[in-house]
Write a structure and sequence with these properties.
Elements: H1 2-32, H2 39-50, H3 52-66, H4 71-85, H5 91-110, H6 116-143, E1 154-158, E2 161-165, H7 186-195, H8 216-222, E3 224-225, E4 228-229, E5 232-235, E6 240-243, E7 273-274, E8 298-299
Parallel strand pairs: 2-8, 6-7
Antiparallel strand pairs: 1-2, 3-4, 5-6
Helix pairs in contact: 1-2, 1-3, 1-5, 1-6, 2-3, 3-4, 3-6, 4-5
């Protein structure tokens, strides 16, 4: 009886952990990923980058369940590797993976769940159901993003602001050192906006001071959902954005098939809390925007690091 309790505890532990990473993976995938026009590339990125923690947990659990004597060496080695990988202060990796792996190794080594058929069904079925279930709505959103194909200089008016946003080019494109592994710094973004020429297609050697980064209030008020303004407001006291309609990565402020998800604004903030949208959860980083230091309110932007 004791071995059966330990066995079912191992199955439960693995299932909960795999379901957690399934939930995390699909949400992060459709928030950060799923930008490529190719379905196969999007699926590959999802499996390799976002669902790999779930798949690793399932693979280790399947091997440990099938061959209990391999539980300690296999999971122990994996836990040590993760601890080494996150050795520079990423405590969440140790908490969410290393400790559970050592616990699971002991449980699978000594436990024997019965009936095994039910154990297999729960271990493999629930994480898959979690991944599919929680992917349906964000997948629908990601595949129905609005892209009007207009990446030129354009005015976006509404919700109390009227800004001219820079065209696709240095005011949009990643120019910071280290791209594509790293985005630009806030200083670099400000300098790029200051040097952006009037047509928005090149950077001058000296500051022109025609364009500037938008403030966070301007960015929040300008965000759209499916071609219409999202009616966003910025609370400067709570450092929080509120929207009537949750915005998404839509035109005209976003290029749908771009890996960039955060952009700098001119607003400096220490603690920023989003109210609703998973696609706008860092309001010191915002979509494409260098608005001017002059009365011409023009806007551009640079991706955040």
């Amino acid at each position: 009886m004791r071995r059966q309790i330990l066995g079912w505890t191992a199955i439960s532990f693995s299932t909960v952990l795999a379901c957690f990473w399934a939930f995390w993976g699909v949400n992060e995938n459709f928030h950060e990923g799923w930008f490529d026009p190719s379905l196969l590339k999007n699926l590959g990125l999802m499996l390799v980058q976002y669902l790999s923690p779930m798949l690793i947990v399932l693979l280790l659990s399947v091997v440990a369940f099938r061959w209990p004597r391999l539980a300690f060496p296999l999971m122990g080695a994996c836990a040590l590797f993760i601890a080494w990988f996150f050795r520079h202060g990423r405590v969440t990796g140790i908490i969410l993976l290393v400790v559970p792996l050592f616990a699971m190794a002991a449980l699978y080594h000594f436990g024997r769940p019965h009936p095994r058929r039910w154990a297999w069904s729960i271990l493999l079925g629930l994480p898959l159901i979690t991944a599919i279930g929680f992917a349906i709505y964000p997948a629908w959103l990601a595949t129905h993003r609005f892209d009007d194909g207009n990446y030129g200089k354009r005015q976006i008016a509404g919700n109390g602001v009227a800004l001219i946003w820079a065209p696709l080019g240095p005011g949009w494109a990643p120019l910071g050192p280290g791209w594509p592994l790293h985005g630009s710094s806030w200083v670099w973004a400000n300098q790029s906006c200051a040097r952006l020429t009037l047509d928005g297609h090149s950077l001058a050697d000296q500051p022109q001071n025609i364009w500037r980064l938008p403030t966070v209030d301007e960015a929040v008020r300008s965000l759209n959902f499916r071609g219409g303004n999202a009616s966003g407001t910025w609370d400067p006291i709570l450092h929080r954005a509120n929207f009537k309609v949750t915005p998404d990565k839509d035109s005209p402020l976003w290029k749908v098939h771009s890996p960039i998800i955060y952009w700098w604004t001119a607003t400096k903030s220490t603690t920023i809390k989003p109210a609703t949208s998973p696609t706008t959860d860092m309001f010191s980083h915002f979509p494409n925007g260098c608005a001017p230091a002059t009365s011409r309110i023009d806007v551009s932007a640079n991706p955040a690091s």
